[in-house]
Structures are given as C-alpha cells and as structure tokens.
Amino acid sequence: MAESILNPSTRRFLGLLVLITLAALALHGLIPAEHPLHLSTYTLTLLGKYLCYALLALAVDLVWGYLGILSLGHGAFFALGGYAMGMYLMRQIGERGVYGHPELPDFMVFLNWQELPWFWYGFDQFWFAALMVVLVPGLLAFVFGYLAFRSRVTGVYLSIITQALTYALMLAFFRNEMGFGGNNGLTDFKDILGYSLQESRVKLALFVASALALGLGYLACRWIIASRLGRVCVAVRDSESRVRFIGYRVEHIKLAVFVFSAMLAGVAGALYVPQVGIINPSEFSPLNSIEIVVWVAVGGRATLYGAVVGALLVNYGKSYFTAALPEVWLFALGGLFVLVTLLLPKGLAGVPLRQSLAALRFNGKEAGV
Q: Which entry of 103, 183, 246, 249 is 20 to 30 Å from 191 by CA?
C-alpha cells in the first residue's frame, strides 16, 4: 500500500512542493529587501493564498474526478471553515476593538446586541475553533449528502442542488440578525495564538502551514485513491448501477468521501482567512464554486496534481488580469474553460499523455507496425 501511495507522481509533487516552499523562504529571509530577487511579505502571503486555493481544488477533484460528483457548492464548505476561524480571530480582539467591548465584536455593539450569541461560545479557544473548522463543514456535508444520496440524486440535478445550497447560505449570511457580521462579514483581525497577524514571522508561519496542509491533504487523497475505497469510487463514477448490483452501498461510499472532501475544504478556508484578513458572505457566491471547477478542469481532473496546477495557474492569471485588464477577466475565464473543454478534455495534466500516445502512433507507423 505504501508503494502505491508514494508513486512517482506523488514523490515528484511532494518534492516540488518542498522545493518551492524552501525557495520562497530563502528568497524572503536570505535575500536583501532591495535585491530584485527578494520575495516580499505581500508576495509570500499571496502564495499562501494560492496554496489554500490548491487545497480546495484538491477537495473538489477528489469528489468530481474519482467519484463523479460535480459539486458546485464546495465554496460553501470553504467559507464555513473560514467563518469558524474568523470567529476565533474576532474573539481575540477583545477590548482593542473600536467600541472597546471585552466580549462582543464591534459589529454586534454597533447593532445593539446585548450579549454574545450561544453559537459564539467556545470560539475564544483555538482548539475549539480548529475543531469547528472541520466539524461544521463535515456536518453540513453529512446532512446534505445523506438526504441527496439516499434519494439517489445524481448528475446535473445534484450539481444544481449543491449550487442552491451555497446560494441559500450566502443569502442567510448577508442578514445582520444571523450574527456573522452581515454584508461586511468578519474583519479587522489582530492576532492569532497571541502573535500579531501583522508580523512577518506570522505571515511566514501561515505560508508554511498552508504548504504543509496541502502536502498532507494530497497524501490523504492519494491514500484514499490507492485503497479499496478509491477503486470502488472509480467504479461508482464509471457505472454506479453495476456497483449497486454487486452489493455495495453506494450511498455510504459517496457520503464518506463527500464528507472528507468538505472537511478538507474547511481547512483550506481556515488557513485562507488569517492571510487575507477578511471573510464575508461573498465567499458563498455560486460563482466562486464554479471557478473552483474551472481550476480542476484546466489542470486535469482525476489526477490530484492537475487540480493543484490548475488552481495555481488560474489564480495567478486572475491576479494579473484583474490588475492589468479588469474588464476582460471574466470573459477570459469563460473562454479558457470552453477552450480546455474542447481542446484539452483531460486538462493540462493530459497534455504529456496525449503527446506520448501521438509519438507512439508515429513511431509505430514509421516502423510499419
């Protein structure tokens, strides 16, 4: 089993991830700030955000590429993990807020809340917040998946329901009476675990934590794929009715993998929030979930590493084009998805394979085979 998990592609991916992380740390800490090769704290934070997106893409690839579930609602699990971390960060502000209340966040004081809502209890402790980061998305995925998979909702109908789920959550979190900051969300964070979020070493630690989470998440997904569960997942993707016929409880298999994927997305959201400094209901937007699917499609689904590559490339392009040509970014994203679907159905990860097969066919013809 260990050999199948640490296959050549996994070793190359992990090696490259370690190399990139060490290179980023070296360029940031060892190169003088005035040197052109110096990696600024801003760029390091941007890379950390990209790594969080890569972990989110990994979660989507697990259920879409290997289980055949096209989820258009994983942005909801990402946002819930982010809100859980944001609630902890808000509780850490205390009397340093604008209104100086020792317990209530500023937005609650502004809205004349008299006491802290019950669902905010415990978020002054990091361990509790870390637990909620995985439990809340996991619980939502369990309830939703149990009802959907038991009813045998599949295909485009399941995709539409997942999109409706995240849209409903977005509308709910926009309401001030929900107690999550309404339209403005949660922001103005001060510190984490007693360390200021403005310190360079904290930003450095968050970047390393994002890289570590991506590596561990990749290994966990690879372990699932290499196990018997992974083989059954692929069978369900290819022919669900046959798997049911031979006696497998397909709904249980779908539910287990779907819940794990949601937890992985929650971890990505929790690491994302302290690096960007804000979490608001726009993270629940259905457009965000569609973008995640585009990342996976561009990189190549059912490869894991392809999802990571797609997330990194598309988000780098987004950062560049939204600054250089902001009015054409959405058109470029839509055009990219169409081109990849038509010309590269297996994504960028499938390009080397297609070239190898073409070379084999060419050599075969030359040899007269």
A: 183
Residues whose CB falls within 8 Å of the CB of residue 19, separated by 6 or more in sequence, listed in order: none
- Here the contacts of 227-230 (C-beta below 8 Å, separation 24 or greater) are 227/1, 229/253, 229/256, 229/257, 230/66
- Is residue 346 within 8 Å of residue 354, measured between CB atoms? yes
Tell me the average pLDDT of the chain.
90
Phi, psi at residue 219, to the nearest 5°?
-65, -40
- In 3D space, the residue among 305, 243, 244, 233 whose CA is nearest the CA of residue 63 turns out to be 233
Distance CA 151, CA 178 (A): 30
pTM: 0.92
Distance, in Å, from the CA atom of 235 to the CA atom of 228, rounded to the nearest integer, reads 11
Q: Which of the four pLDDT bands, split at 50, 70 and 90, describes residue 134?
A: very high
Round to whole Å and give the CA distance between 352 and 361. 14
Q: What is the pLDDT of residues 295-335, one digit of tens each?
A: 999 999 999 999 999 999 999 888 887 877 777 777 877 78
Q: Specify the DSSP element, H or E, that contains 210.
A: helix 200-226
DSSP code per residue over 234-250? HHHHH-HHHHHHTT--H
Query: CA 187 to CA 173: how far, in whole Å?
Result: 15
